[in-house]
Automatic annotation (TrEMBL):
InterPro entries associated with the record: Papain-like_cys_pep_sf (IPR038765), Peptidase_C92 (IPR024453)
Species of provenance: Pseudomonas syringae pv. delphinii
One Pfam family in the UniProt entry: Peptidase_C92
Descriptive protein name: Permuted papain-like amidase YaeF/Yiix C92 family enzyme
Length: 247
């Protein structure tokens, strides 16, 4: 154990080389968090989380905060934590790529399901609209006609890592030097402001209808329930004006 700790102390935090990552790529990561360790042990893999690249240095994933966009350049892998970038063996068509990105973006705000994540290795469990990380990735590809795993509704990150439909992109990680690390840890994650605002808006919307999951659901709900316009439209517009929610 002491030797392992000394080895970790000599290792540097790492970040992804964003210029090597393409739209539609799948980013797999993990953290030193005890829950991440439990997931890695349960699935027999060195990672515990999955994301989809939807733009330059932008990924979408599902965590306890729900489905949100994140800045890939803000993601840091602590010493000893693995990271992989996967890409389809069969190149995606333009239509497939657009479909995958649109699916992920449409899911923004959807709540996370701990039950679904826990049951992801069990067959026959009924799928719902709530998301967890590997389901979001697999479903986005499945809807685009690209099957990565046997069951897109219930899979875990290890299945994505071992999928024959994907190959690993090499040399996508680099070490942070001490100066870069200090600067990175001091910087504020401005995308977190957007995530917090999105969740606040959706909490208000769900007080009106418990069936609302994503931002897109708000517009759809208002089409059939115009009486909610005053409350939800004003809330939605206030967030859009602040620049924290994409239109």
């Amino acid at each position: 154990m002491e030797g392992e700790m000394n080895e970790l102390e000599l290792m540097r935090p790492r970040v992804f080389v964003s210029d090597l990552i393409q739209l539609g790529d799948i980013v797999l990561t993990t953290t030193p968090d005890p829950m991440s360790k439990t997931i890695r042990k349960a699935i027999g893999a060195d990672i515990s989380h999955a994301m989809i690249c939807v733009g330059k240095s932008s990924v979408i994933d599902s965590t306890g905060d729900g489905v949100h966009a994140r800045n890939l350049e803000r993601l840091i892998l602590e010493p000893g934590c693995a990271g992989h970038v996967l890409r389809p063996v069969a190149p995606l068509t333009t239509d497939q790529l657009h479909s995958i990105i649109a699916f992920a973006r449409a899911a923004v705000g959807t709540r996370y399901t701990k039950i679904g994540a826990a049951k992801s290795v069990l067959a026959g469990f009924v799928a719902g609209r709530r998301q967890f990380c590997s389901r979001l990735v697999a479903q986005a590809y499945h809807r685009a006609g690209a099957n990565l795993v046997p069951d897109a509704d219930f899979c875990h990150p290890g299945e994505l890592l071992n999928s024959a439909a994907l190959f690993e992109v090499p040399n996508v990680l680099r070490d942070l030097n001490a100066e870069e690390e200090a600067r990175w840890r001091e910087n504020v994650d401005h995308v977190q402001v957007m995530r917090d605002s999105t969740n606040a808006l959706l909490r208000e919307a769900r007080m009106v209808s418990s069936e609302i999951e994503s931002l897109n659901d708000i517009d759809a709900y208002l089409v059939d329930h115009q009486e909610a316009d005053d409350h939800l439209v004003k809330s939605s517009e206030s967030f859009k004006v602040s620049g924290t929610v994409e239109g």
